[in-house]
Amino acid sequence: MTTRITTDNITDDTIQTADVADLQVTNGKLASTAVTSSKMASLVTINILASDGSTVVKTIFTPGS
Length: 65
Hints:
Blueprint: E1 43-49, E2 56-63
Antiparallel strand pairs: 1-2
């Protein structure tokens, strides 16, 4: 017999990083708003401005140094 674990069985703040096996969190399992640039520690934000410098026309996130 297999025992199923559901969210009702998990107490808040009890899942630790070590409890999640490598490669088990995939893009398909993440909400579209779950990962933001502020959560990516080494990214640098580059804003491309309009020629008059008045508005941002494009934002690029690139690996930091």
